[in-house]
Write a structure and sequence with these properties.
The complex is a heterodimer of chains A (143) and B (125). By secondary structure, chain A is mainly beta. Chain A has a single domain, classed as Cathepsin D, subunit A, domain 1 (Beta Barrel). In chain A, 8% of the residues lie in helices and 52% in strands. The longest helix of chain A has 7 residues. The N and C termini of chain A lie close together (9 Å). With 125 residues, chain B is of the alpha+beta class. Chain B is 43% helix and 14% strand. Chain B has a 3-stranded antiparallel β-sheet. In chain B, strand 1 and strand 2 form a beta hairpin. The longest helix of chain B has 16 residues. Chain B is globular. The chains are: A mainly beta (143), B alpha+beta (125).
Chain lengths: 143, 125
Amino acid sequence: MAVGFYRTLECADYDVGSQPERPAVDVTIFGPITGKERSFEAAIDTGFSGFILVPHETYEDLSELEVPASEFLIYSTVTGPVTLKRARVIALTLGKRFETFIECPLAGTTRFLLGRRILREFNVALLGLERRCCTLEASNRRT
Amino acid sequence: MDVIIRGVRSRLYREFKGRAASMGLKLGEALQEAIARWLEETSPLPLAMSNQNQLAYAKMRPEISRKYHGKYAAVYDGGKLIASQSFEDLADKLKELEVKRAVVCHVGVDESGEGGEWLWGSIER
């Protein structure tokens, strides 16, 4: 069996204000027209298959370029389907700046989450005992 | 994707096919447009559709689809249209025009696939 090695690039402490503690990372979103920026801490959520979920106030602030309503994505939840509105933004997180989307329910409250459509672009390790999450880079060394 | 539909009323189909041809549309294009309009009309998105740019985009979508395939298009000020080859360029043009908000799409490109699930990771005690 081949064994791969990874080098730690950057680590962030878990959000210890939640119990049990949860993995969270710093995210900065830039409005694509005005360039205005907002920073926040978003929980890593492997149960959410979307992009970056944000509360209404943040969405209203940064949704300069919303996608057509016909392209809003519908998510299955334990209480039935939920439609999330969506806007194009520039994001900076885990050491990368990239074009992506923020999402927000049409109604109801929510919080900051980083979904799997973002996480699939990174190697992230959850070090639960250390209460840290780290981005990794594959090392060339193999055994 | 390819779809086979059975049991379509022949008169309805003939009329639909004839109308599509008279508008210079392939049958698949006309059907796709009909499906999209039906979805919009029965959509549970009244909140989103109260936005003037969203309403204008919905009306202009057939024209945008025909003329700007592969480009980024933005609808702003309740019905003005601008298109560009890249997202960055489009954002720059909107900035020059001092536009604060727009509805923008990458025409004919499905960048995100379907939704998925949201297993309430944001709910905590």
